[in-house]
Amino acid sequence: MDVPEPVRRLALYPFHELPESPDGKRVELEGAFIGINHWPTAQIVGIRGDGPADVGATVEAARAVAREHDKTIVAWWVPPDQDHVAPGLEQAGLVNEDTPGFEAVENALAVLEPVFGDRADGVDVRMVETWEDYLAGSRVVETAFEMPHLTDDDLRSRFDDYLHPENPGRAFVALVDGRVVGTSFAAFGDAGVNLFGGAVLPDARGRGVYRALVQARWEAAAARGTPALTVQAGRMSRPICERLGFGFLAPIRVFVDQL
Predict the structure, then answer these.
(1) What is the pLDDT of residues 127-154, one digit of tens each?
(2) Are 231 and 194 in contact (CB under 8 A)?
């Protein structure tokens, strides 16, 4: 698929290209960086340029940062042009496998036109602005992705971070008959909007909920003058996105380090 270089980079390197969230930070390593956030998912390591001269040493440095922040899972994000780092990761004990929040292979996709069709009847989508919507969307993610459970108190602090004026994105929820059945996140980058966390409850699938969430985020992208969507899709969402008009760019391997 032929896309502008800034859009391609957003699709393949979202953790490099997107602005930092106010509830997280990036710690620079030799030839890489590790992003630390408050969520109970893998902390992502992004590779800088050609990568570290000593992969094993940078793996140990990433582990030290993760332990310092009481994190137990680190995942290295390895696009095709940085795949030469993979043998060093495997030698250090990392494995290319699924982990909560990410799959062993994430597929970089992009779309530059609103080719999604009409929004499904009976599905309403709105941007998350209230605690009630934020909580309901978080519970959808837990159920759909079998994520670790967070208490309401944990989510309250994350909702405060979500409302921070420097938060580089917004969540959306989809409702059927007034019930929140789907959720998604739009991360606003300079070249477009990257899609994260599209989730639909099992009993609401097949009704156009996922498509409606994509459409809402396209409208947000177009409204801010960056009409492009990128996503890193797993095995379930890739065929759905491709049916909606997204084009495939490249696979990204995720190497997991359980501490």
Answers:
(1) 999 999 999 999 999 998 877 888 999 8
(2) yes
